[in-house]
What we know:
Layout: H1 2-10, H2 14-36, H3 49-73, H4 83-113, E1 118-120, E2 123-126, H5 135-169, H6 173-178
Antiparallel strand pairs: 1-2
Helix pairs in contact: 2-3, 3-4, 4-5
Amino acid sequence: MSAVARYDSETYGRVARFLHWLVVVLIAAQFVVGWTMPDIHRDTQPVGLIAWHLIIGTALILAMAVRVVWRLTHRPPPGDLPPLLDTVSRATHFLLYAALIVVPLLGWANASSRDWASTLSGALPLPPIAATGSNVAHEMGDVHGVLAWVLLALIVMHVGAALFHRFVRKDKVLERMMG
Ligand code: HEM
Ligand code: HEM
């Protein structure tokens, strides 16, 4: 009994692991679609790849809402990293969460200002969070694009760290998220 409890306490839980990898897949798709979709102008319609960006974006917002609630109610497994690495790791995870919340919110605000519905292809429509034609929300579209690069930089650091743990430090950090 205690052996099982101990093993459980050393890896992220099933739900946390599922949400982590679900968000990874959605983000990867969202970058590809965001970079390949056509340029957006005043009279552009949300069809084709742009519609996909809104569908994946809505899925991301819903997945992140669940993930944040889950994270606030479930502690990650205790780690045994040296203090400096522990601080850098916590700070990067915090910034990743911040970017994973702010970047989608700005996209959602920009979509709202264009009167574009953010839905899972009609299901689970998100309410607009900015007035149609809002200038501020329009500018948020540019900030969204810039902060997407910041998110990408954090992801590169994060994946680099995962590989550093696995192949240089040869510790169990990667296994904590693999299950
Ligand atoms: C972390 C998740 C997201 C990433 C990585 C991402 C990435 C991108 C990228 C790379 C662009 C193109 C920027 C450019 O060419 O300058 C873009 C534009 C856009 N995204 Fe996202 N996006 C995300 C989430 C969302 C969400 C959740 C929505 C709405 C529900 C959304 C709506 C939009 C809109 C409306 C634009 C056009 C902005 C404009 O050109 O004014 N995005 N996104
Ligand atoms: C879109 C890409 C990714 C994002 C946004 C992301 C985000 C995150 C976040 C926010 C955490 C903190 C979890 C928490 O404590 O609640 C985390 C943990 C973790 N991620 Fe990722 N991740 C991404 C890709 C990856 C990849 C590709 C790998 C593996 C190569 C990976 C391996 C890990 C590991 C091992 C942990 C646990 C670290 C620890 O135990 O301290 N992640 N990730």
